[in-house]
Task: structure prediction
Amino acid sequence: MAYTKRIDGRKFNETRKMEAKVNIIKNADGSALFRFGDTIAIAAVYGPKPLHPQHLRNPEKGLLRCNYDMISFSVSERKRPGPTRRSQEISKVSEWALTPIVELEKYPNTVIDVHIIVLQANASTRCAGINAAALALANAGIPMKQLVSSVSVGKIDKKVVVDLIKEEEDYREGEGSTDIPLAFLSKSGEISLLQLDGKIRPKELDEAIKIGREASKEVYEIQKRALKAVGEEK
Amino acid sequence: MIAEKKIIKQKVDEEREGKKKKREIAIPGEKIVSGKEYLPGDGTVREKDDIVARRFGLADISGRLVKVIPLSGIYMPRVGNIVIGRVEDVTFNGWILDLKSPYSSFLSVSECPRYIKGDLTEYYDIGDVLACKVVSVKHKSIDLTIKDRGLGKLDKGLIIHINSNKVPRVIGREGSMIKMIKDETGCEITVGQNGVVWISGSKVEDELKAKEAVLFVANKSYIEGLTDKVKKFFEGKRGGKK
Amino acid sequence: MKISDLMKKRIQEFLDEEKRFDNRKLLEFRKIEIETGVSKNAEGSARVKIGDTEVIAGVKIDVTEPYTDHEDEGTLMVVAELLPLSSPHFEPGPPRIEAIELARIVDRGLRESGFIDFKKLCVKKGEKVFGVCVDIYSINNDGNLIDASCLAAVSALKTARMPKYDTKLERIKYGELTSKGLPLTKNLPLTITFHKIGEKILIDPSSEEEETSEGRISFALSRNPGKKEDIVINAIQKGNPKTFEEKEIFEIAELAVEKFKELEKRIKTKEK
Result:
């Protein structure tokens, strides 16, 4: 049976309800929350600060270090605490997604730590994490060329959809489910995150990225609104 | 430095005039204003005709100069800044201080006003707090001095932390804000440009009052008519005491 | 920046005059906020704020094998993580002793009070029992994580729902909860942590006070199952190398009972 109607009734190009909030952790130099429906991620930025040990220091530019993790009760089957191969990989791709936006050459020999924690998971956790992290970096006052907005697209059987939920990720009928987390830089439009699991043809991939780009613009609007709200508080 | 002082002065002037213009939030990568006549200042770059924000903050257009006034961010040392730091480590020829900045800073024995010999920890030890002046920022290493009036070890009073971007407001126009707080509380206050503030009074209550006032200014530094609000703050305090 | 010696001295001098930087009394808690049901995928969850300190706790229920010496009882596991996100002083990596100790104190309070009726968590004697797992995470640390964590753990347990259990497959149907709560008793445990700075004893320290403190002692207390008016100590943990006089311990124990009652009242009004 073809995937003609989404499980949760959304349009194919419709994201879940998004929410973003900046300045949520007092101790951090910058922090933010980002939510896609039931997926909630928070991020905190500490730094730039002196980098130890010394041999990791780069006299040409600073280091952006990402640390992604999910809390044990973010998923329905308890996740054992501590890093996994999955979380380490996501930390790294998140780091790559975020690094191009930051002017690291302004802070040689230093490190900026970005901690991403998934509080509640229903797919697209890395996208929510990257969106929160981009806001936290801005909130930390770090010089940035632009923001980055992340969203997942997928192909369910033959249909390209945006912002998958867990049940869609697990779809088995027809051509099954293909999950493509993406991140777009807000100004240049370049892609800084692209992963894919599933089955897809080049033409469909092109369609998926186009739909993802449109959805990422909505993410960006939510991010901007959250940053503007900080100014109004003051 | 001079340009910065001018802008701070201007900010205060504008405040005095009441609501002049509302500053928009600057989003990194977004255009602040368009036109060849504008000049890109701190936190901005020119991209063709546009002046584009390169950090999050408040967009400020003063005449032709466009800049982003930061709302947050780590302290970046500049030569001439008075800062307050904590001794983190002691080396054979000086002290390493934590200034809450991305780089550690060094106070050499040669930058002390008196002759120092033997065990350096007898002069300043780990955990001590010193008011210093930044003498050089080279290759991202910071050198400090305490050879000046009012500098050196702080051995009484208390320390509070504010965001370094709020320091100009706490000091106020030509030091007017901090003078008012000093006069009202009878406390000695040194506001480090790195956001570390030292308060020392003869009574606990005075220090706490000064602390509250400094935090009040730091947290409300983007509202209009701040000077009057601080006056009211102290009047309220006095009223409460009766 | 770490706390300076100057600040430590001033905090102590203030305390000598029975004063604190935030105008609190020595034995006064900061504002406490409790929010439950903060996580959809947990069987129970809570967010607790004490001043600027914030922790979240979640309960997950699993089916597991019982311990051989308690064949007809469910099991309990308490794990705490001090997230690097919550403080510039917490480093990533395997849990350090601070996190382990914190979880152990909460664990002992929960276990020794008899708050959870473990016998009612038996599925098949000697083979299958429900295992209760409480995970605690720091979100922002401004001191007193121990008391905040215990409060969050208890609040999460109180609102937890039992998961659906497939008797044929003998396993949990994840994501499906029943309307039944955990089998809990009235012996709700709470911790009260005391700090000694100079000669003064205080509770609920801010980060600055905690860094100044040399002596720490935590009490987990609850009401005695039989007699409700009887408050008992279920666990004590003296932390840090600083020693206490016998007289001090006795005084603190009495204060702990008083503060327990107060905290209990504050939680009850929060629930209304």
